[in-house]
């Protein structure tokens, strides 16, 4: 089902900011000036040197950054819900050029744009709802502020606040609202080589990437005209980079899975135009103690069990999957909570993608397991022309 959009001033403001983004990113500069490129921004080289809690915060010298929350919740009637709340930061004034910009030119002068996506999968009612926001990072409209103890990421009244192991999420749209507290019960899982996650054929095609793979969740959602107390588990990804997606890649398939034996699995598959996966694709297995085992592309086998075609975008998504990792004696089947969990983010990032709640059954390390998770499928509606 298509979500209701903002109306009145909010609709006009979102449209204005979306046009502003297109102008800033695409309008040619005067003759003799250089278009900003990846070399104008800080690159991931060698080591990310991640330290916590400070690296939960923003990394403004990198071009692109996101804080990505997903989770599976249940009411006291055992009604299943999935949720997504994502905050994106995009820097469009390179640090190398920023030094020549006078600080007192205008209070409206922005270096960063912020976007946010929120979604709710109502499994019992068979509904998928989502909304989006866009704001400039000025005048308190949006930002990611760290004071040494607390991180506050916000776009107007949508926010994520991180303080110690506690995360507070809040987002309200016309059709639904999220009001959740999450508590990290495992340390950050660093993906790739100590957080350096290779995303292409050369070292500079990389991001700094970690996850909080087991967040205990509680709180409430507003849906179907009532406030519903919920509890469950959630996952948080934090990733930043300045590299563009490598030529020849059209998108990625991403999985975050939480099992009933309190282990977790992340898989990130970079997809080529012919459907094959790039050798830089990888994953991480997290054991009950939080220890991380890196998985190379050759360790991962993925099959498509069935697809779903969007009646809006025409994209065909592989929404039922079989996932095998022989080294972990793992053989899993992933099934979507709903077939239609597609987002068309025309008023923010401009990307159409499938992101939704899944259930998992199968075998891990030779024993039966079950669980829940999230799956993200990008580049199926059209090739993804975006940073990592």
From TrEMBL:
Domain AttH: from-to ranges: 64-242
InterPro entries per the UniProt record, alphabetical: AttH-like_dom_sf (IPR023374), AttH_dom (IPR010791)
SUPFAM superfamilies to which the protein is assigned, alphabetical: AttH-like (SSF159245)
One family name in Pfam for this protein: Lipocalin_9
Entry-linked Gene3D superfamilies: AttH-like domain
The protein's name in its UniProt record: Carotenoid 1,2-hydratase
Native source organism of the sequence: Desulfoglaeba alkanexedens ALDC
